[in-house]
Amino acid sequence: MSEAILFDDGKLRCRWCSAAPEFLAYHDTEWGFPVADDFKLFEKISLEGFQSGLSWRTILAKRENFRKAFVNFDFNKIARFTDADVERLLQDEGIVRHRGKIEAVINNARCAQKLVATEGSLANFVWRYALPKNPAKPQSQSTSVESVDLSKTLKKRGWKFVGPTTVYAFMQAMGLINDHAEGCVIRKKVDKERKAFLAKREKK
């Protein structure tokens, strides 16, 4: 359900952020706001991969542990991880200990390096898939034409755990679309930041 609901402070917000106390700050200050920092983009797509089969609440609760384990998602450093690092991370109780997902982050870090070498930055690449306006009703779909396209392109470049649904969640969170519910107090803030962000990118 994507409609906005009234919170104790008298403001309307997306219904989903009422599901857990820690969701509120994430919703109000992060979700949907445009991000251009390569390491933050890489962090999010990595965490969305870890979320596969789990809840975002589980991942959000462990996010600081993930940041410590994966050196703040600096893909240049992660790309140098070895088999010994994989075994070390499999013993880290602070993160999701899934060999395939851990190895995927290391693989994707190396893919990110190659992408930056050809595209200039991860941001330059992913923001090509951004939409000025979301043509669908907010939170009414789990994939889009753009997320399918981006997913296919990443897979062709060797990335793993980047299916269309994972990529769409990444696009929602990083501001490539504004999927806040109509009436949500944050929707207008995100719209304003996205317009300024996209305008600035067009001038480059």
Automatic annotation (TrEMBL):
GO terms (BP aspect): base-excision repair
Pfam families per UniProt: Adenine_glyco
Top-level taxonomic group: Bacteria
Sequence positions that bind Zn(2+): C14, H27, H180, C184
Keywords associated with the record: Metal-binding, Zinc
Keyword Metal-binding found: yes
Recorded GO MF terms: DNA-3-methyladenine glycosylase activity; metal ion binding
Statement: the UniProt record of this protein carries the keyword Metal-binding: yes
Record-linked PANTHER family: DNA-3-METHYLADENINE GLYCOSYLASE 1, DNA-3-METHYLADENINE GLYCOSYLASE I
Protein name in the entry: 3-methyladenine DNA glycosylase
Phylogenetic lineage: Bacteria, Pseudomonadati, Pseudomonadota, Gammaproteobacteria, Cellvibrionales
